C-alpha cells in the first residue's frame, strides 16, 4: 500500500501544474526533469544488469584448456584398492567388498573406459 501511495505522489508531482501543487501547500519539489530521467535511468540500469551479469560470469570462468575445469582442490580421489578390479562397472551388493567409497574417478580412467574398442 505504501508503494502505491509513493507512486501516486510521483504521478501528482510529475503531471500536476505548479499552481495546483502550490494550492496544496507543496512549494518545494525537485525539477520536472527527474520525472523523465529517473525512470529512464532505472530502465537502462535494469537492461544493462543482465549484460553485466553475463560478462562477470565470463570473466570468472576458467579457460577450457585449464586443468581446473577437470580437477578440483576439494576432490576426493579413490584409490584402486577400494574400487576393485573394474572401477567403472556396476558393483553388486552381494560381493564381499560391498559398495565402494564415494569419490571422484580419474578423468583419464573414465575416458579410457568409454573410448575403448569393443
Care to describe what's here?
The protein has 118 residues and is mostly helical. 51% of the residues lie in helices and 0% in strands. The protein is rod-shaped, with a radius of gyration of 32 Å. The chain starts with a helix and ends with a helix.
Could you give a short description of this structure?
Helices cover 51% and strands 0% of the residues.
Which tags fit this structure?
5 helices; mainly alpha; 51% helix; 118 residues; rod-shaped
Order of helices and strands: HHHHH
Major sheet characteristics: none
Classify the beta-strand content into a percent band.
under 5%
Shape by Cα distribution: rod-shaped
Q: Percent of residues in helical segments?
A: 40-55%
Round the Cα radius of gyration to an integer and report it: 32 Å
Number of strands: 0
Task: Quote the distance from N terminus to C terminus.
Answer: 70 Å
Low-confidence stretches: 90-94
Helix tally?
5
Structural class: mainly alpha
The averaged pLDDT comes out at: 79
List the helices and strands and how they pair.
Elements: H1 2-15, H2 18-23, H3 33-60, H4 80-83, H5 107-114
Amino acid at each position: 500500500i505504501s508503494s502505491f501511495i509513493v507512486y501516486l505522489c510521483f504521478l501528482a508531482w510529475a503531471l500536476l501544474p505548479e499552481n495546483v501543487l502550490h494550492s496544496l501547500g507543496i512549494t518545494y519539489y525537485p525539477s520536472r526533469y527527474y520525472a523523465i530521467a529517473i525512470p529512464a535511468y532505472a530502465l537502462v540500469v535494469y537492461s544493462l544488469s543482465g549484460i553485466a551479469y553475463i560478462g562477470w560470469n565470463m570473466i570468472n570462468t576458467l579457460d577450457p584448456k585449464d586443468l581446473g575445469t577437470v580437477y578440483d582442490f576439494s576432490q576426493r580421489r579413490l584409490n584402486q584398492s577400494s574400487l576393485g578390479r573394474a572401477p567403472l562397472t556396476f558393483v553388486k551388493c552381494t560381493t564381499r567388498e560391498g559398495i565402494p567409497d564415494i569419490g571422484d574417478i580419474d578423468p583419464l580412467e573414465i575416458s579410457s573406459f568409454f573410448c575403448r574398442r569393443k
